[in-house]
Amino acid sequence: MPDTNLADPTLLKFGIGQPVKRQEDPHLLRGEGRYTDDMAVSGQAWCVMVRSPYAHGVINGINAEVARAIPGVLLVLTGKDLVEAGYGPMRCVLPLKNADGTPLINIERPSLATDKVRFVGDPVAFVVAETKLAARDAAEAVELDIDSLDAVTLASAAAAPDAPLLYDHIPGNQVLDFHYGDKDKTAAAFAAAAHVTKLSIRNNRLVVCAMEPRSAIGEYEAETGRFTLHVGSQGVFGLRAQMANDILKVPTDKLRILTGNVGGSFGMKASAYPEYLCCLHAAKLLGRAVKWTDDRSGAFMSDQHGRDHEVIAELALDAEGKFLAVRLTSFANMGGYLATVAPLMGTGNFVKNVQSNYATPLIEVATRCMVTNTTPVSAYRGAGRPEGNYFMERLIETAARETGRDAVALRKLNYIRPDQFPYATASGSTYDGGDFSALLDEALKAADWDGYPARLDASKAAGKLRGRGIGNFLECTAPPMKEQGELRFEKDGTVTIITGTLDYGQGHWSAFAQVLHSKLGVPFDAIRLQQGDSDLLIAGGGTGGSKSLMASGAAIAEASALVIEKGRAASADILEAAPVDIEFNAGRFTIAGTDRGIDIMDLAGKLRDAEGISALNVRHVFDQAPMAFPNGCHICEVEIEPETGIVTFDRYIAVNDFGVIVNPMLVAGQAHGGIAQGIGQALHERVAYSDDGQLMTGTYMDYGLPRADNLPSFGFVSHPVPAKTNPLGAKGCGEAGCAGSLPAVMNAISDALGGRHIDMPATPERIWEVLSK
């Protein structure tokens, strides 16, 4: 990558490393954002889904005669109609294998259930009408003849011999019996251990609760046979491939995916849902656009949920306190169907992330992935990364207490040392670098660790319990994928970045513009970002797994280098010099040793042809970079009122190594959001089902989200060690807040409770029950 002149004042203001304000915000705050539900296509009709009120049952019939007779109703269709139209199913795409080497048992999920319903909210039909109100009335008039069956909602219960079976082809409800590690060596390590710590940990199921409910508009052009889907997503390139290849059964050029602004996703909007096919098929039949927008109650039932694991976690230590092995034995709840990446969280991501910062030589993960009569589970912020770190940190804190060791010293004893990098881990990853002990020391200092005894005495005097917790984390970002980096010098003097990641709240425009500004010296306020149109893409990994900057940022950096190569040759011709004598710095091509030169924007204009296309334009695909390893240390202090069990935060410090930071303000914001979601899981959030599979936490009256007064003021410190795995040296930050906050908060609560283990969410009721025993 070319060097930039950091003495240039605009680079000091808008370049890499500067806290540039989000360019997206004025547009959004003025209400000018365009979310899917904001759109209205001329002549559009409305779609409403008909959902199962039963968690498990056999579909005998669906009577839609009354619904079809309601004025304004245009269509009422069932799963049989979609099957006869030749559409394909949704399925898991992961090539995972059982412990015996056989592949996982996949599930081909139709967009509408045809034989059985398998969770409350399972769609069985849809209605299209002239108005949304008429469609709702008709959906309520559809009569379902379903024989209710016994239901099972807990993964471990689904494994019981007498559990109701969801599928004839899935014996025992088990789709995958995953195993990683050397079972015999791990067993030997535990047998030889001087101490073994063992915990039973429940990783509570969550509703994703994105601010914007899912919405879609389907269109169809009969003349070209081409579909268009307007939908909130995490990446249009991958969603187009899934929808076209697997579901619509058409070439990808017969489908265009358009995504505007997206009000949050956290993994949930990454893949296809049944409603999308319903809108597209109805649009084809009716010859007009069809729109669907979920309500919040529907979202609680139909949006893919997060987490939901039952884990036995074990840590073996030798007499000196060195870690010998870690072992996780788990049940992972898949829900009623297998979502696109459903088994990933409790399998491979457990493996990679339970390693964390530690030189643990043996890792064994055994996970049974089970189907149950619940909403399908898929990725939620971190997707197994926070969980792996959480299990390890709870084990370490408990082991320190059980063996009478200092928890800080125990961590330092087992850290991977700087002189050991690159370090090949037992999890199969190779860490390129880190400074874990120094980072921990910085966190202890920022949290005033040594001043804790005085604060503890003050809490005791006030009749309150106090605890403190450390949450170390190291997470492996998403696997590498090809990413587009296209740069277009427009006629109006702006430069457009086109890339396949997608902003759903992260602030891509500002960060990507900073990269381009640093590399090419293009005026910052002249840079535009275009995402969300599959017609413009030849590659694109979407946004997820904390990899956007590493992928799109690297693609932009490499594309910038290609622009400079083009510009050097073109400016040499204009300046009447040899290309070898042309230098580029801070947005200007000059003849070496002289002041003769030309600005890159002027050069782009001179090279523009009659059609307005500049010869400096570049369309580039970044081949991919290995995953990176963001890490850090969170320290939390809490007080608990014994009479009520209410937890309040006294302080919260996060020290993070995110490698090279492009925009410190955006990174701090990402950390704050992740910490808030981690606190939500730790203290408030839990999906609950009744024995017959009814969702008992289906509204915000029953499901707790953290509010502003539940959250602490966050201290944020950066301790960067640049990554060696990508051109920018970045490590990713989007999911790290959850990875550090879960263990920090729960370790602090456990400490306040005298070391007793408590599962998430640590609600006042649960804490009061622990204290009452």
From TrEMBL:
Any one Pfam family match given in the protein's UniProt record, by short name: MoCoBD_1
Keywords, comma-separated and alphabetical: Molybdenum, Oxidoreductase
Organism per entry: Plastoroseomonas arctica
Cross-referenced SMART domains: Ald_Xan_dh_C (SM01008)
Molecular function terms, GO-annotated: iron ion binding; oxidoreductase activity
Protein name: Xanthine dehydrogenase family protein molybdopterin-binding subunit
Domain Aldehyde oxidase/xanthine dehydrogenase a/b hammerhead: residue ranges: 30-150
